[in-house]
Amino acid sequence: MLDGLRLALKTLTVIPVRGPRALDRRTAGRAMELAPLVGLLLGLTAATVLYGFRQVSDARELLPSVLAITTLVLISRGMHLAGLANLVDGLGSLRDPERTRAAMKAPYLGPMGGVVLVLVLLTQVTALATCVQEGRGTASVLLAVVVGRLAVTGACRDTRPATPEGLGALVAGTVRRGVTSGWVLLVAVGFTAYATVDKDTDGGDPEHVVRTLLAVALGLGAARLLRQHATRRVGGLTGDVLGGLSETATTVCLVVLASAL
């Protein structure tokens, strides 16, 4: 488990940790099972930046939100965003799995990938700024990042790799039965409990409770639909597919949290 945590931190963040003693599928599976925990660490960092900058500046919503999302990009090395862009370029090529993977590996960013990258970042910043305006910014960015990494855990449960090499081959089918469900239950219960605590009301915020549950369900649901389509088109699981799933779940979660019920 310690090796799995080291691998998860080394793979999903810029934290300079020593790698695992042995890199095998079992260690990779433990790393993917711990991805939501790493997401909690990333989310706490972004939430701290968001809250801290609002306390020391006159900026209201937009600039703190930009800095929080920028922090996420930097501490995750932009890996998930790059994976999303590559995946979109591959899917947009409308080719067979082999040539789709070739398009994803191209050394340049295609027009579709570039446009989606910009739109996703704009959506995340705008949604987070709306959440900040409504007084739930830190909790929202924390939940969205955790859900994004939980989508990675779920994708490694019952998928097959697209190729015999790469990250997909190392992690596909390695997550143990029940782990994803356990994480979903823990995240849903934990953040719902937090949503019931409201300093301005005696009974909490019922709408925020519903919004939280919807954000978890729709974020993971969108990632699952994309996973089914992407693995069929790509031929299986790859690192880029995992990155695309993470950003999709994060973005959808933020949009739901920013929405009015």
Structure characterization notes:
The chain contains 12 helices and no strands. It has helices at 2-12, 25-33, 35-56, 62-75, 79-92, 97-104, 111-133, 137-155, 166-171, 179-195, 206-234, 239-258. Helices cover 74% and strands 0% of the residues.
Q: What is the CA-CA span between the terminal residues? A: 41 Å
Residue-averaged pLDDT: 92
Helix content: over 70%
H-E string:
HHHHHHHHHHHH
**Largest beta-sheet details:** none
The geometry reads as globular
Uncertain regions: pLDDT < 50 for 5+ in a row?
Answer: 199-203
Strand content: under 5%
Compute the number of helices.
12
Overall strand count: 0
Q: Return the structural class.
A: mainly alpha
The Cα radius of gyration reads 18 Å
Key phrases:
74% helix; 12 helices; single chain; 261 residues; mainly alpha
SSE map:
Blueprint: H1 2-12, H2 25-33, H3 35-56, H4 62-75, H5 79-92, H6 97-104, H7 111-133, H8 137-155, H9 166-171, H10 179-195, H11 206-234, H12 239-258
Helix pairs in contact: 1-2, 3-4, 3-8, 4-7, 5-6, 5-7, 5-12, 7-8, 7-12, 8-10, 8-11, 8-12, 10-11, 11-12
Summarize the structure.
This protein is an all-alpha fold. It has helices at residues 2-12, 25-33, 35-56, 62-75, 79-92, 97-104, 111-133, 137-155, 166-171, 179-195, 206-234, 239-258.
